[in-house]
Amino acid sequence: MDGILKKIRQSDAFNRENRVPYLKVIVLMSLFTFVFLGAEFLFVNMISRIVSGHRSVAAQNYALGVSAVGFVLYPLLCRFCKGNAQTSVSVCAAVISNACLFLMCRSGSYTLTLIAGLLLFLILGVFGSAVFYKSLCLLEDNTHIARLTGISYMLGTMLQIANSNLVHIDIAEAAILSVFIMLLALMLIRAEKNSVVPALSKSEPDGGNGRESLKISVILVFFVALMTCIFSTLDNAVTLIHASGEANIGQWPRVLLALSGLLAGFLFDTASRKYMSIVMYCITVLSTTCLVVLQFAGSFTVGLVIFYLAAGFFAVFFTVSFMEIARYTETPELWAGLGRAVNNLVAVLISGGSLALLNSGNNIAIITIELLLFVLASVAAFAYMNKRKAFFDGLEAEAADKLQKLAKQFSLTPREAEVFGLLVNTEDGLQTIADNLYVSRRTLERYVSAIYEKTGARSRIGLVTLYNNA
Q1: In terms of Cα–Cα distance, which of 278, 291, 293 is closest to 378?
Q2: Cα dihedral value 73, 123, 146, 439, nearest 10
Q3: CA-CA distance, 9 to 469, in Å (whole number)?
Q4: 18 confidence band (pLDDT: 50, 70, 90)
Q5: Distance CA 101, CA 115 (A)
Q6: Are 343 and 318 spatial neighbours (Cβ–Cβ below 8 Å)?
Q7: Which of 183, 226, 241, 280 is the most buried (most CB within 10 A)?
Q8: How far is residue 145 from each of residues 16, 261, 392, measured CA to CA in Å?
Q9: pTM, whole model, 2 decimals?
């Protein structure tokens, strides 16, 4: 009896230990969100004091474009820098980033400020790609990936709001960002040394899955790119109204942005993200309608609320979608952070054309192009949803076959096989599993002890190892 109770306690310990990676992921992604948004805010402020508004917007676009390059560079650094070399590169990158921040604050030269900003955002792009990949490694599976992303996005955005509103001295703002950049680098180094899974062994792609996941990833790139066109145009429309003095955006809507990201995370995770794409498509419909209303002098307040709600949902969507599928690709270090890269790059590429179109005052042309983008996004959404569903249905079928073979091998009853599957494919505690199966905890413990006895496993970790090696 004592042996059985010890094994049950080990199962609960397994669940508690798996909460630690969740905290690490939240810290990593929150730090990056805060640092990136804070650096962008500071950079634009510094540039706008030197040159005109149009050149400031152009400089911001250059920085976002360079950050996209940084996201793509990370896989190359992974290939050539290993172990201590990667640690040294991370420390050097953090030190250079801090130097760039202080140079931006002290330099009155447009050229020097721009160069410092571009170098800073190149490094932040590399850091961002590393954050998403290391988070993927720490999580082991995709169980709570959306809600963790939503929580991180909310925390990072709220930190940025607090920093920009409470700190009004540029050099102090740069000092705070420097501390957080060093902390981010330290967290990445620790994640490199202490990742739960150095390789994505739990979902290691085979040839077939690798090819299918690549197809889904390519379709996802087009889908996110088209949605970026819509959301970026809406962003520009709101910004132009604010800049014209017709309405004042102020600071409060950014709180709505943070809360919408949090809501999106929990909503997307419903039914293992089965409805995530459909929800995002509905948000896209709402955003397209909002832009049309704004062009015909609709309520700016309503449009602003819709914009920030949609922006939070979109940020969480493209982050989660690429991380989710990256696990099954042959180069997860590339795909894990590509959502942010695609969004930044497309936003930069269409910025000039979008602003020119909105400034033209030709509402018919604006609405026609937006509706065309919406139709193309609808086609991409339909293709992505179908491909994604077929892919994950196939993975579930493979998991069911594996579980059936193990049940036959160890003579597990149907109920024991069901419990076995929940133990190895979820991170739920025993009480949660018992509630889901509508049995008492004592009954569930009897099933677990029978599974241990038949399989020879001594803990839940042993069951997971047995399942992965099957």
Answers
A1: 278
A2: 90
A3: 24
A4: low
A5: 11
A6: yes
A7: 280
A8: 17, 13, 15
A9: 0.84
- Please write the tens of the pLDDT for every residue from 393-444: 888 888 888 888 888 888 888 888 888 888 887 767 788 888 888 888 888 8
Sequence letter at residue 370 = E
Q: Which amino acid is at 155?
A: L
* 356 contacts: CB under 8 Å, gap ≥ 6: none
Mean local confidence (pLDDT), 39-46? 89
Rounded Cα distance, 187 and 131, in Å: 9
**Look-up: residue for tokens 């018992």?**
434
Cα-based torsion angle of the residue sequence 243, 245, 251, 253 in order, rounded to the nearest 10 degrees: -90
Residue of 143, 5, 144 lying closest to 441 (CA atoms) = 5
Backbone angles phi, psi at 381, to 5 degrees: -65, -45
The per-residue pLDDT for range 202-238, each reduced to its tens digit, is 444 445 567 888 899 999 999 999 999 988 887 777 6
Give which of 392, 407, 397, 395 is closest to 467, Cα–Cα: 407
DSSP string, 339-366: HHHHHHHHHHHHHHHHHHHHHHT-HHHH
Rounded to the nearest 10 degrees, what angle do helices 145-166 and 19-48 cross at? 40
Residues present in the chain in total:
470
What is the Cα–Cα distance from 127 to 291, expressed in whole angstroms?
A: 34
Helix (H/G/I), strand (E/B), else coil: 197: coil
| 163 touches 279 (CB < 8 A) | no
Residue for token digits 């909105």? Answer: 358
DSSP of 385-427, one letter per residue? HHHHHHHHHHHHHHHHHHHHHHHHHTT--HHHHHHHHHHHH--
